[in-house]
Amino acid sequence: MSRYVAQQSWDEAPHLSESQTAELWASIPAYQRDARSRGFPSLGSGAIFPILESDITCEPFPIPNYYARCYGFDVGWNWSVAIFAAIDRENDKVFLYDEYVRSQAEPAIHAAAIRARGDWIPGVIDPAAKGRSQNDGTKLLEAYSDLGLLLAPADNSVEAGIMTVWERMSDGRLKIFSTLHHLLSEIRIYRRDERGKVVKRNDHGVDAMRYLIMSGLQHATTKPVPQRDDYDRHFADASRSPITGY
Fold it and tell me: What is the pLDDT of residue 227?
């Protein structure tokens, strides 16, 4: 017997009146509203970021040149994910605006894709993640640096990182572009088990975000401005003939 699963929202349920919808909305905890009203898969009490998705997302907008940028990079054979941020330092707000997601590719492939988004953008990577030894992690960081990435080691404090991300989400200092579908899908199912431990599955994007918020912001920089060659204006002798040079 075949099965078919469809995702539907309350707007597609004609039997629900406006007053019934409002009553249901008021009775549901904030972090469950997207799951129940829009059909997004998410968790209940085990969710690590129990917040309404619409409170942490925003529509994409052109990034001003004065916003500093950086990225967090989580490396694995099954999945490698880089999350890019633009920082409004004046208002201490972080906007996650782009993501790179790819499975089973060589470092040169990942590095080329990340450099294409701006080879001047610095990033942070956790060299000790995914069971690597510190020695192997150091070699990994060096390998990506040799491929042209501007990388620094990330702080991989899990609980402190979760708390720091959660604080920014809660007070509006962290926003995610609605186009980052992979990251948002991970946030919806990012959870703890019955013993309170973080479930380490399908979390490459979340980990990259955590590295970024914990360590990347201090390395963030603005896009370099090309310097105009002012040699002629400063050093040319206006009394000389433009033809002969004498």
Answer: 73
Specify the pairing of strand 174-177 against strand 93-102. Answer: parallel
Full-model pTM: 0.75
Which of the pair, 128 or 30, is modelled with greater confidence?
128
* Cα–Cα distance for residue pair 179/97, rounded to 1 Å: 8
Pairing of strands 122-125, 68-74: parallel
For 223, 225, 234, 236, 242, the CA distances from 228, given in Å and listed in that order, are: 16, 9, 12, 15, 21
Give the sign of the dihedral formed by CA 160, CA 165, CA 166, CA 172. Answer: positive
Closest CA to 159 of 81, 93, 214: 214
Q: At 139, list the tokens.
A: 């070699």
Edge-to-edge strand order for the sheet containing 57-58?
Answer: 57-58, 174-177, 93-102, 80-88, 68-74, 122-125, 150-153
List, in order of start, the domains of the chain with CATH numbers.
53-219 (3.30.420.280)
Q: What residues does 150 pair with on adjacent strands?
A: 122
CA distance 40 to 69: 30
Highest mean pLDDT (candidates 115-129, 165-179, 220-234):
165-179
pLDDT over 70 at 116, yes or no:
yes
What pLDDT, on the 0 to 100 scale, is given for residue 42? Answer: 46
Question: Is residue 76 very low, low, confident or very high in pLDDT (cuts 50, 70, 90)?
Answer: confident
Judged by DSSP in three states, 70 sits in strand
The CB density around residue 29, as the number of other CB atoms within 10 Å, is: 11
Say how far apart CA 209 and CA 205 lie, in whole Å: 6
